[in-house]
Design a protein that fits this description.
Layout lengths: L2 E4 L5 H15 L4 E4 L8 E7 L2 E8 L2 E5 L1 H4 L6 E9 L2 E5 L2 E5 L4 E5 L4 E5 L3 E9 L7 H5 L11 H16 L5 H23 L9 H15 L8 H7 L4 H10 L4 H17 L9 H7 L5 H12 L3 H14 L2
Antiparallel strand pairs: 1-3, 2-5, 3-4, 4-11, 5-10, 6-9, 6-11, 7-8, 7-10
Length: about 325
């Protein structure tokens, strides 16, 4: 059965202290600051799947700190994976920062100080994992804290989808199945962490593949930005533009061609939506980072053999005849 704890029934003036107790009790000892004049109600719904704890948290703007003093109070054996559902957050740990939005996730190691800032009303699902269950090294864990895991593509996309579905269906699981799925969760996270940790050693064979995946995840998050360019991508990953081009060349393409392909595919998908929900061709192109309508039209025709308007009309016709 889930454990539901909330400050909803309390007067606003009494919510801050009680919320601090709820958060520290549900996770690990933490300092909590509510960043709004009149504290909103907060709710934590937790359930256990064997050694895995899943918690759904809904609350108003706040900042949570895991200080060195709080670490001495216990809980350092846990890693928390947080899947953002609504609102944005900024996680800072190990001299790195990750800004996360809905669908993406981060990891925080309770054995070292961290800060999580939630500037808006939010909802997230957290997975409290005993680090010993992961079977990965401290080096692997230090590679993932304070970094963003895109929930769109690659291994991180698969993990995000699994975590989301697991939390949604956890209530209907029998104890044996719940325990087995918890072990599956640990295995998936271990694979993901080892993949990312390979990026720490430039001489490791998996370094290039791991770095390319990370770069592609970054690009997908910024596809709608017309100013996205190799120089900006390289700077964001502390590498030279030359090395960035080398990564994509090893994958059989170029930076520009890969960005163009991904933008066109999203435009194609949006244009295929039913007529009652789809935007104009120009609006779709602008949404995905195309500045010039004529360039978009030429690129779309070269990729798909028809103009954007022809594709949109054909998609609408097909949706109209399909029962």
């Amino acid at each position: 059965m889930p454990v539901v704890q909330s400050t909803r029934t309390l007067p606003p003036g009494e919510r801050a202290d009680y919320w601090h107790e709820l958060v520290s009790g549900a996770f690990v000892p933490l300092d909590v600051r509510l960043d709004e004049p009149v504290p909103s109600a907060g709710t934590i719904t937790s359930r256990r799947l064997g050694p895995l704890q899943i918690s759904e948290v809904e609350a108003g703007p706040q900042t949570v700190d895991r200080s060195a003093r709080r670490i001495t109070e216990g809980g350092e054996e846990y890693l928390t994976v947080t899947l953002q559902r609504r609102g944005s957050a900024r996680l800072t740990q190990d001299d790195r920062q990750a800004v996360v939005g809905p669908g993406s996730f981060t990891c925080s190691d309770a054995g070292r100080p961290f800060r999580r800032e939630q500037p808006d009303t939010f909802r997230f699902t957290s997975f409290r994992v005993p680090k010993t269950n992961l079977g990965v090294s401290d080096r692997d864990l230090r590679a993932v804290t304070g970094t963003l895991f895109n929930g769109v593509s690659g291994t991180s996309g698969l993990v995000a989808e699994f975590l989301g579905r697991l939390s949604e269906h956890a209530a209907g699981l029998d104890p044996h199945t719940a325990h087995q799925l918890a072990l599956t969760t640990f295995d998936l996270l271990a694979v993901l962490f080892r993949e990312r940790s390979g990026r720490l050693d430039p001489q490791a064979p998996e370094h290039a593949r791991g770095m390319l995946t990370r770069v592609q995840e970054y690009v997908l998050l910024h596809l709608d930005d017309p100013s996205l360019c190799p120089e900006r991508i390289a700077a964001a990953h502390h590498m030279s533009v030359r090395y960035l081009h080398k990564l994509f060349h090893a994958g059989g393409t170029t930076v520009g061609r890969w960005i163009l392909r991904e933008r066109l595919e999203r435009c194609r998908r949006d244009l295929a939506r039913p007529a009652r929900s789809v935007s104009t061709v120009a609006a779709v192109a602008q949404r995905w980072g195309f500045v010039s309508p004529s360039h978009f039209s030429r690129a779309f025709r070269a990729a798909y053999g028809m103009t954007p308007r022809e594709w949109q009309a054909a998609a609408r016709l097909q949706s109209a005849v399909v029962p």
